[in-house]
Design goal:
about 120 residues; single chain; 6 strands; 5-stranded mixed barrel; about 40% strand
Length: about 120
């Protein structure tokens, strides 16, 4: 019985850790949706999401940390993760973070003339 409870505790702790690492929708302001177009500076996998550092020129130069979906979700929606490389021009529609300057969460991405809804 003791070993069984220990295993259950590990599962609960793992789930809690994943929840804390996740970017919940409440962290983003859905009343301030914005369209951004720029050049990918870099990409990173921040479990469980893929993120882009997006250099945007207009209305003023700014680099945004754009939180996308998970790599598997992107692939299932038809966005090839391998195509999200530095130098690629993309556009996103996103909600800005309430707490983290220059961070936003993308709802859709346009890459190579194709727009994909991520959520």
């Amino acid at each position: 019985m003791r070993a069984h409870l220990g295993g259950a505790a590990v599962v609960v702790l793992a789930a809690a850790g994943a929840a804390l690492a996740s970017h919940g929708w409440g962290e983003y302001d859905d009343t301030k949706g914005m369209s951004l177009k720029g050049v990918i500076h870099s990409t990173a996998f921040e479990r469980p999401y893929l993120t882009l550092q997006l250099d945007v020129e207009k209305p003023q130069h700014r680099t945004w940390n754009v939180v996308l979906a998970s790599p598997s979700k992107l692939e299932s929606k038809g966005v090839a993760v391998a195509s999200l490389v530095p130098g690629t021009v993309v556009a996103v529609y996103a909600y800005p973070s309430r707490d983290v300057p220059d961070e936003c969460r993308a709802l859709r991405i346009t890459l190579g003339g194709k727009t994909t809804e991520l959520w």
